[in-house]
Structure formats: C-alpha cells, structure tokens
Amino acid sequence: MEFFNDVGSDAHRPSLFELIAQEQLRDLLQPALKYVLAVFAQRHPRYLLRIVNRHEEFYAAIMFFVERHYLKAEGASFAENFYGLKRRRKPFIETERAKAAVGSTPAEESLRSKDIWRSLIFLVGVPYIRAKAQDHYEQLGGGVDSDILNDTSASGRLLTDGGQVGYRSRLREMPLTPESQTMPHLRKIFKTLYPWANTSFELWLAAWNIAYLLDKTSFYRPWLSWIGVDLRRLGAADFSDSVAKQLKSGAQDVPKGVLATTRRWLISSPKLLLASLKVLLPTCIFFIKFLEWWYSPSSPARTLTGPPSGPSIPPPRMLQPHPQGLPVDGVKYGECPICKSAIVNATALSSGYVFCYRCAHSHVEKYGNCPVTLLPAQIWQLRKVLI
C-alpha cells in the first residue's frame, strides 16, 4: 500500500496504513477506559458505579474536551497527532508546487472555529451514537432469535405442572397501553434493520478506503469531504514551529510570589495534562493489553506462578432433586424440566440445573426457589448458558 501512496510528488499525503492505525488507536481508548473504571468500581461502587453504567456519556464528555484541545492546539485529533498527522482546509485549487512544499500549514489552510466544531461532531458525536446503537442492539438480544425474546411467541405456552399460572392468562390480566403496544414493534424493527444498516455503513467506509488507496480521492472518510478538510503528514517546519512554541512558553517571565505561582499553575495544569495524554494514554493501553495477555490461559505466567502439577480438582457433585420438586429425566438431553419442551434460551440457576429463560424467570419470580431442588433462588442468580 505504501507504493500506491508514495510514488507521486505529494510526499505529505499519508498512507492508508497510517490512517487505519490512528483509527485503531482511537477505538482502543474506550474499552481501555471502561476496563479501568470497572476494576475500580468493584472497590468503590458508591462513587464509580453510576459512571460505569453511563460509560458512553462519560467517555464522550472526556473525548470532547481532549479532541477540542488537540484540534485547537495541534490542528489534529489526538490519534492523528500521535501518528504525526494534521488537518488542513483543503484548497480548491492545489498546484504541484504546493504539493511539493515542505513548509508548515499556511494561515488560510488552518482550521477555523466552524471546522473544529464540525470535526468534533464526527470525532465524538458519531462514535457515541454508534456505541449507543450497538449497546441497545445487544440489550435487545442481538444475534438471538427474535422468538426467544418476543413476548407474543412464548405467551401461548402454558405451564400447568405444579399449578402454575399460564403466560397467556397473565398477559390478559395486564392492562394494554399505547406505549406497550408500540414499543415492542419498534424494538423488533430496530433489531431487524440495525445489522443491515451497520453493515452498509462499514461497506461505505471500505469503499472510500479503496478509493483513497487508488488515489481516486484525497479523503479517506466521506465526512472529511463534507467539511472540506483533509489529512496531511507533519513536515519539518511543523515540528520546528512546535518546538518554537514550547520555547516561547517556557521563556515567559516566571511569576514571583505564592499566589502568582499558584494561579499560573492552575491555569497551565489543564493544558499540561491534556498535552501529556499523548504519552500517558498509549502507555496505559499497552499496560492493560499486557495484563490481559499475562493473565490469559496461554500466558507463561500460568506455568511460572501456578502450583506444581498434580491431580485435577474434580467438579462439584450435582445436587439431587428434592422429592417434592419437579422430576428430571436423566436420559433426555436439552429438555426443560418445567415445560417439558426443548430448552429455549438456556438459563441456569445456582443449583446447576438448566431451564428455559422464561420458565426459570417466571418460577423464581413467583416461588423464589429452584423448581428441582427447591433451594432458594433469586432473579439476579439467573445465568445465561452459551452453547
């Protein structure tokens, strides 16, 4: 791919490898931050649990200030600046002499205020909307058969064993509201259309990548052409200007006195913190990925820190059914002990027995125990079994 990008006279045109690499770095930031918050939330749930539950909003708010700072100070997003790229307003007519120039970005090609705000919409707003849509799709049971989660499909199944009330009669007793009638249809439409829309969006982006690779366009993303901004490599003049700005800021008169020093430190600390993210965030991502590899089953840490080889620990013994509980046929595999049909959306209780999700949920909600062993059980103890 480097061949397609470097044979021309435009040495400042970034390769597709660089553009994809900076996007992958940006995509790694959110799961890394979520992992760190989830770890600390286990120790301080009172303060961090709400942030973890609203992680998309929290991450979007943080990235808004980070990306805004880098767009104003460096003329590029955080990931683009990390890979030595910059944004510029693409001129309507670009000569070969301008392409071959190695100077810094001219004033007329620098990002204006409206260019920064438009860039923020696609750097922060669009990823936030996509993350919320993906999260909502997974909450609706993305990839699971709609018959499993559809209320109307399982409502016709009656549970007569043990005197339990059937789903159909329970649904008839519930009052119907316009919202309760409309929302299931909207969820079903969203669950059907979202995979197609997401796939079409990815194919659309892939088409722009191919066009950029073949030098058919100077934008690797369609919204960059809408904004009128393209990406360029940083040149020697850009690095010289950056060093000059740092020397100029460091050569300022140092204030005397405690109050003046404190005031200067409070004003400059947010900028220093945002500027240090260029080193801190990639280091944190590398450290988190290293910990994931170190504690993975294939890591050498298992052989170095694990106990010496010995007899394997046997699994716990299966609890026997209670005489007054539902009988379990040990020969039939995949049959729900409650409805006596094939298990749909397999769910296990703390006793170890597996049922249909709706059967288990209905029984635990009404009786508060396992229907086979009669051991106490609660709704939050239901565990989905991935087969």
Give the class from helix and strand content and strand pairing: mainly alpha
The major beta sheet can be summarized as: 3 strands, antiparallel
Q: What does the radius of gyration come to?
A: 29 Å
Q: What spatial order of strands do you see in the largest sheet? A: 4-3-5
Shape: elongated
Please give the number of β-strands: 5
Percent helix range: 55-70%
Mean pLDDT: 76
Number of helices: 16
Distance between the termini: 41 Å
Oligomer: single chain
Order of helices and strands: HHHHHEHHHHHHHEHHHEEHE
Q: Roughly what fraction of the amino acids lie in strands?
A: under 5%
Give an overview of the whole structure.
There is one protein chain. This protein has 387 residues and is mainly alpha-helical. The strands form two sheets. It has a three-stranded antiparallel β-sheet. Helix 2 packs antiparallel against helix 3, helix 2 packs across helix 14 and helix 4 runs antiparallel to helix 7. The radius of gyration is 29 Å and the shape is elongated. The N terminus is likely disordered.
